[in-house]
């Protein structure tokens, strides 16, 4: 049986997830090696990260649609890919300057091209399994960020790429 690590952390909710110290530090502890931060946003992480955000105003190395970036990347494979997209159309319109997330299923199917075997995909959102076994991933760590009151928790999952 595989061990699943679990963290439960209380913190407020913010549209720029990593501006919250508790979440940023969890991400920094959990990431490994060369990190590709696909929806990078405002906050730089204390990591060896390559940053992408469609919004030109964000501090990033690239400003491409996430799916376009993954499809066009010809560089070295990453050890960790961080996913923190806007999930809902309404949220994109209201909170992220009308930047709409690429089709998420296509994004997930393309990720293995850019990730080294043994690497991690770390996702912030509403699901515990994101990449899943069919794509060759195994859930290794979960965190629940509890925002209190009537606000839903944020689920972070770390899935290890173990292709056959
Ligand atoms: C939930 S925020 C996360 C930001 C970051 N993780 C942080 O904590 O600051 C989503 C980010 O994705 C960017 N974004 C939206 N659609 C995108 C797309 N299609 N490709 C790349 N970035 C996108 C937005 O500009 C926004 O900064």
TrEMBL record:
<dbReference type="GO" id="GO:0003676">
    <property type="term" value="F:nucleic acid binding"/>
</dbReference>
<dbReference type="GO" id="GO:0008168">
    <property type="term" value="F:methyltransferase activity"/>
</dbReference>
<dbReference type="InterPro" id="IPR002052">
    <property type="entry name" value="DNA_methylase_N6_adenine_CS"/>
</dbReference>
<dbReference type="InterPro" id="IPR029063">
    <property type="entry name" value="SAM-dependent_MTases_sf"/>
</dbReference>
<dbReference type="GO" id="GO:0032259">
    <property type="term" value="P:methylation"/>
</dbReference>
<protein>
    <recommendedName>
        <fullName>Methyltransferase</fullName>
    </recommendedName>
</protein>
